């Protein structure tokens, strides 16, 4: 049951968010309280129906560069923890899959010796899919707190960049 529950739940929420995406973005641009915005930011990071860089820019547009980056940081970090936890439920099948590919197995062993720097650098390289980093860390033996700290720090530069770009359209630079 556990094997099918996570993908079915993910697909259901993804479809609902896609169906209501226009309403969600319209609501986000209105004056709303912070808690729903943080929850929505997290949902958009876990269920990427639109590129998250666009979500960060919208947050920057609405809340300014610093406020938008902070809301996006909370959302992406919370989403990273959720996906890490979900992936860790499939640790054994994930490890077997990685072991089938010699280069991934070799990389995993090296990454597990230096988990903080591996995650920190991976977060800063824009071509590496963030969801892949979350899943990879969840199925390997990376300690949660090192993963959490590296994730939180590694996301900051790009979040500020995209939030600042969004705020530039509204004239709210800080």
From TrEMBL:
InterPro entries: TMEM64 (IPR015414), VTT_dom (IPR032816). Pfam families: VTT_dom. The keyword Cell membrane applies. It is a multi-pass membrane protein. Keywords: Cell membrane, Membrane, Transmembrane, Transmembrane helix. Coiled coil: none annotated. GO terms for cellular component: plasma membrane. It comes from Paenibacillus lemnae. This is TVP38/TMEM64 family membrane protein. Belongs to the TVP38/TMEM64 family. The chain crosses the membrane at residues 6-22, 34-64, 70-90, 144-165. It is found in: Cell membrane. Residues 50-167 form the VTT domain. Its main location: membrane. It comes from the Bacteria.
């Amino acid at each position: 049951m556990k094997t099918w529950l996570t993908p079915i739940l993910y697909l259901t929420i993804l479809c609902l968010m896609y169906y209501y995406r226009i309403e969600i973005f319209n609501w986000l641009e209105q004056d709303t309280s912070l808690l729903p915005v943080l929850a929505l930011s997290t949902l958009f990071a876990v269920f990427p129906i639109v590129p998250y860089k666009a979500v960060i820019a919208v947050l920057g547009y609405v809340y300014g560069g610093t406020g938008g980056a902070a809301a996006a940081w909370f959302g992406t970090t919370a989403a990273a923890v959720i996906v890490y936890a979900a992936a860790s439920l499939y640790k054994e099948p994930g490890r077997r899959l990685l072991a089938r590919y010699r280069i991934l197995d070799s990389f995993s062993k090296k990454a597990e010796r230096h988990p903080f720097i591996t995650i920190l650098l991976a977060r800063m390289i824009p071509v590496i899919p963030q969801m892949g980093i979350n899943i990879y860390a969840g199925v390997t033996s990376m300690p949660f707190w090192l993963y959490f700290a590296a994730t939180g720090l590694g996301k900051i530069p790009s979040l500020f960049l995209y939030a600042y770009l969004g705020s530039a359209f509204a004239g709210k630079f800080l």
